[in-house]
Amino acid sequence: MNEIILQTNQLTKTFKKQKAVNAVDLKVYQGDIYGFLGPNGAGKTTTIRMLLGLMKPSGGDIKIFNQSLKNHQLEILKRMGSLVESPSYYEHLTGRENLEALRLLLQAPKARIDEVLNIVRLTQDADRAVKQYSLGMKQRLGIAASLLGNPELLILDEPTNGLDPSGIQEIRELIKTMPKKYGITVIISSHLLSEMEQMATRVGIISKGKLIYQDSIHRLKNKALPQVALRTGQVVKAKSILQSAGFEVGGDSTFVTLENVSDREVAKAVSLLVEQHIPVYRIEERSHSLEDIFLDLTKGGELHAPGTAS
Q1: Would you give the DSSP letter of residue 107?
Q2: For the whole prediction, is pTM greater than 0.85?
Q3: What pLDDT digit, counting tens, does each position of 7-59 carry?
């Protein structure tokens, strides 16, 4: 396991007695593309603003690069880059001139401009006025600006918001290269699970200010294992028979559901019911999509079987 690059402990932000962020414990490892997920208004941007020192926490603490942000803010932020909400530019200047203005503020080497333009694939358009750029190109210029200081940790808040599918794909492919090619750990916030599924290595899901899930994207996908539903006219009796035989059962008034069963176990369950004169009318395999899981988690409920009432 790589070392922890960012960690929060009971991070909290209160506005007028309302907890926008409630005791959040984030853990981001070096080399992660950490997807910070949640519906709009869940507390993602407030959390990110605290991580960047733009907002003071009401409680808890933040450690980045194994140092307290409260006590070492300036030296920590020098090792970070960020893009929060829409990047701002001088529209009449070229992409290169915009980066030059920022480079002077950061006191970065002049050669870094060509390096970041190459990383975000804007070299050919560097000398065009930004007002001629597409939305996707402007977003890539914003990422180039966030990379000027050669950061070890990059925080991107909804970087694909408002982009068309090709723009989203461009940003996604760019972010995926960051850890291995450039040694940059990335935290990226989004309200779209489908987007995170294609690039994140780990995810944290926040809902109503609380962190409700944090683990690898692989483990989240494992929650989507299929279940088998048996339709029968005697659900209560069927459940009792199968539970007595050691099956993990659920369901509703029409179906009995079996979790984590092999084909052989399904055949055994059907045989048991038929032997007890319980008619089995239909056998279905049901799968949870990751979107189902995300919606169930953010509603604050348990994982429900597809097609059943929540």
Answers
A1: T
A2: no
A3: 999 999 999 889 999 999 999 999 999 999 988 888 999 999 999 999 999 99
What dihedral do alpha carbons 53, 188, 85, 72 form, nearest 10°?
Answer: 10
- Quickly name the fold that domain 4-217 has: Rossmann fold (3.40.50)
Q: Which helix (H) or strand (E) holds 153?
A: strand 153-157
Query: Can you give the length of the chain in residues?
Result: 310
Phi, psi dihedral angles at 205 (to 5 degrees): -110, 125
Q: Quick one: DSSP state of residue 42?
A: S
Distance CA 277, CA 258 (A): 19
Asked if residues 3 and 32 have their Cβ atoms less than 8 Å apart, the reply is no
- Fold of the 227-286 domain: Alpha-Beta Plaits (3.30.70)
Closest Cα partner for 201 from 220, 222, 216, 181?
216
The 8-class DSSP code of residue 309 comes to -
SS3 letters for 219-262?
HHHHCCCCEEEEEECCHHHHHHHHHHCCCCEEECCCEEEEECCC
Q: Rounded to whole angstroms, how far apart are CA atoms 248 and 258?
A: 6
**Residues 68, 141 contacting (CB under 8 angstroms):** no
Q: Which of 18, 13, 25 is nearest to 62 (CA)?
A: 25
For residue 267, the model assigns a pLDDT of 93
Amino acid identity of residue 148, one-letter, is: L
- Residue 77 in contact with residue 52, Cβ under 8 Å? yes
All CATH 3.30.70 domain ranges of the chain, comma separated, are 227-286
